[in-house]
Amino acid sequence: MHNIGKTLLVTTTRYELRDTLRAQLARETFLAAREERCVVIIVDDSRHSSYADAFRQSGAIVFRQHQAGMAASRRQAFFHAHEFVLDYPRYDRVMWLEPEKRFLPKLAATIAAPIDGVRTLVSMACRSQRSWATWPDFQVASEQKANAVYAEATGWEGLDPMFGTVAFHVSLLPELMTFHARRFAPDIDGDYVQVLASLVLCAQRRQRPARVEVGVEYPPEQRQEEEGMLRDIMVSKRRFQCESLSKAFRALGQAFALPRIIPSMEERYRRPAA
C-alpha cells in the first residue's frame, strides 16, 4: 500500500423539508467525518438554509450550488476541492462521499490507499457479499444488473460502480471539475459524474480503477423507510438509475473499445517467461 497523505471528501446535498431522515443521516455522516478529522466539502441546493447551517455546525465546508442540475453540482464540488488542495497540498486524494452513508468517513483512507499517483489514479469501493445483504432488495437487483453491464462493457470484472464511492488522485481534479460525459457519448445521461469520469479517465490512461472491498451496512432506518412507505418511488428511481447508467457504460465502453485495448491486471503485471 502507498503511504498516503490526506484524503479530502466531497459531496452534494439537496433536501426538502419532508426529507427528515435523509438529512439526519447526512448530518451523522458529516459528524463522523469530523470525528475522523476528515475535511468535507459540500455543494448544497436545499431549498431551506437550515440544512446548510446544520451541516456547517457538523464541521463541513458548505457552498451554495450555482448552476442547476446534478452534474453541475458535482463538477462544482470538484472545483472547490481543487481550490482547497492548492492551499493544503498535504491532501493528495479526493473521495466522493455518499452523504447518507455514515460509515464512509472511517473508511476513506482505506478506500484511497491504492492510489499512488502513477500506476493507480482511481480507486473504487466495492461492497462485500455480506454488505449487499443489508441493502434494499430492489436496489440489490438493479445495481447488480448495472454492475454486470459495466463489467461487460469495460472488461473490468469485480468492480462496483453502482456503490458510487470513488477516490481520485488530486492531479485529476482539473478534469473532474470540467467533466462532461456527453463529450464522449452524446446520447447518455451524464449526471453521475464521479462514476462516469472514473471510467473515462482510466480508459484514457490505459488503467483500471483499483478495487477495495468494504464491509458496510445500509442504514437500517433508511432501508425500513425505502422498503415501506417509499417503496414505489424508490423502485422507480433505482430502475431509472440502472437503465441510464447501463446505457452510459455501454456507450463509453464502445467509445474507448475498452475490452480490447486495456489488458487485465494479471496480464499487465505478468512476468515474461524466462
3D architecture notes:
The protein is an alpha/beta fold. Helix 6 runs parallel beside helix 10. The protein has 12 helices and 7 strands. Helix content is 49%, strand content 14%.
Keywords:
274 residues, 7-stranded mixed sheet, alpha/beta
SSE inventory with pairings:
Layout: E1 6-13, H1 20-35, E2 40-44, H2 49-57, E3 61-64, H3 70-87, E4 91-96, H4 104-112, E5 122-127, H5 129-132, H6 137-154, E6 166-169, H7 173-176, H8 193-204, E7 210-214, H9 220-227, H10 231-256, H11 258-261, H12 265-269
Helix pairs in contact: 6-10, 8-10
Q: How many helical stretches?
A: 12
* Form type: globular
* Helix and strand composition category: alpha/beta
Question: Which consecutive residue ranges, at least 5 long each, have pLDDT under 50?
Answer: 261-274
Quaternary assembly: single chain
Extended strand count: 7
Summarize the entry for a quick read:
This protein has helices at residues 20-35, 49-57, 70-87, 104-112, 129-132, 137-154, 173-176, 193-204, 220-227, 231-256, 258-261, 265-269, and strands at residues 6-13, 40-44, 61-64, 91-96, 122-127, 166-169, 210-214. With 274 residues, the protein is α/β, with parallel strands linked by helices.
